[in-house]
Amino acid sequence: MSADPAGDGPPLQPLAYRLRWRPHGIVPGAHPGHGEGTEGEFRRHVSLLRHPDPRRLDLRASLRDPFGELHVRQYAPRRAVPVAALVDLSGSMRFGEAVAGRVADLCALIAVSAQRAGDPFALFGADAHLREEKCLPFARRRGQEEDVRRRLAGVRPTGGQAVEGLIEAAERLPARRALVFLISDFLMPASEVARLIDALWRHDVVPVVVEDGLLDVALPRWGLVEVADLETGAVRLVFMRPALRERWRRETRARREAREKLFAERGLRPFALTDPLDTEALARRLMEG
Amino acid sequence: MSWVAGAWQSLTGSWGVDHPLLLGLLVLAALPLAASPLIRQGIPSVFLAPADGLSRAVSLSLRLAGSVAILAIVLGLAGLHRREQMIARQGTGAHLVLLLDRSSSMDNSFADRAPSGDQEAKSVVAKRLLDDFVARRARDRIGVAAFSTSPMPVLPLTDHHEVVRAAIAAIDRPGLAFTDVGRGLALALSSFADDEDEASRAILLVSDGAALIDRKVQETLRDAVARTPVHLYWLFLRSRGAKGIFEEPPPGENTPQANPERHLHLFFQSLGVPYRAFEATSPRAVEQAIAEIDRQETRPITYFERVPRRDLARPAFAVAAGATTLLLLAKLAERNLVRSVPTAAAARPQPAVRRAA
Rounded to whole angstroms, what are the CA distances from B196 to B126, B160, B192, B199? Predict the structure, then answer.
């Protein structure tokens, strides 16, 4: 990938994102928050008796009312929402240089978007344990995307399964609801994935599935391939032949369906991180909330 | 533990290597368990690849081929061989001593003249026929002795027929002067002195004439024959004009001095051992005589076959070559798991992130 740790490339275009929920909190931000405020996003008209605040009296609406009731404008306060990216740094993520490439791209893009929206952004990288040197605390400062990219560019994922580390990261998230991008290849067993997602129950989780379409498409018809697990180091010789290739693809499809079912059961809509990062699909997904 | 020692003994007894220190390299045969000739290609999870019995079998056989190749190369380098062995076998044949006349008259033809044209010298005929004879009797132990003025030991009893045939090939060298049958016969008998085998023993005397045997030598011969019973064959190459051994000479001429061949024949008959004389007047007759001897001397015999040291380095290297060929085929059949990555990366447009800027 052309990820540029030095950060002298063209600036990233921040994406807008919407939430389907109203964040709590007191820090002003860009998202229509919980509760009622005196400014922010217009929500509705209520009667003056219900909201006795004559300063917000909407004369035009009051005059239009045939019953002559006085209407007061009510606003949703604009609040900031913490945005976190939880990156799986287990050995399996080494495949196709995903972390230094598209994952770094994605995280930098999220960071710059959050910064533009006035939301604090934090990065957590974890393999079997949380890796402090791959973490960035919640911050709202400018230029954070370069930090993010620098952290992820030099990373060489070697560790074991990342579920424990990601659960540790989940414990560090704020106690109020946050927008969490969970970036992993989700190749761990389904029960582990379920445990991880359940640990993030409080938050709005966007599972970002690092997919390797290439692996599937470019399987050879005939030949010998010796594959080594990047995570455990287990070696397996595969004698590729058309029947086996079909089986391989069938199993991959079945695994993907099982994963999507797991997400759907918990009301999550995964985002497939293709190579390269498809910014338009991401923007669409984020605007859907 | 004793059976281990026994197995080790039997193993080292018949097998050996030239450079035992090199056998330390046999440890390397464990290497293919850890590595394979194929390039390991990273994959996020090994469970992505479906479990497959055929693949496992191929994998196992490749590892095995690697081990076998290393084993065979090391054994070949160490010079594996089977040691020289003696194997006792049963066959039919005899212990035979060829007693050859090297007197100068053997260089003449059957017409008792220097050979010319298509005539053959008696020694040449004897050589050719004896050579055939030895070639037919592969299981015999054969010794060679010659006599002229004095007896000449040429070969003790031996299994090496090449040597015997070489000795026979040398009998047409120009001969020496006289004929001393008696001492020659004593020499031939002494060849059997240290032969304790149960096999039938025979002496084949090939001569074209005879001479008087000394009384004392006659006594010695009788003694020796009594100690070592032998079959006696006399192939008498009778030249034209020479007196026959079966003919009763006219009275008055029947003296050993006048008729030594006849009297030698009588002496042999009086020895009390199986004896046959063949009077050969032409090459064809000689052939018939030898065929007759060939037929008579077919008693069971225990003989030792020497199996020479057999070098197994070449077969070992051949096995190694076969195993390596298998590995080479596997290497040639190797494919990249993600073969289009470089081209895809090259053809890929700038990342959309950048393009958006």
Answer: 30, 19, 8, 9
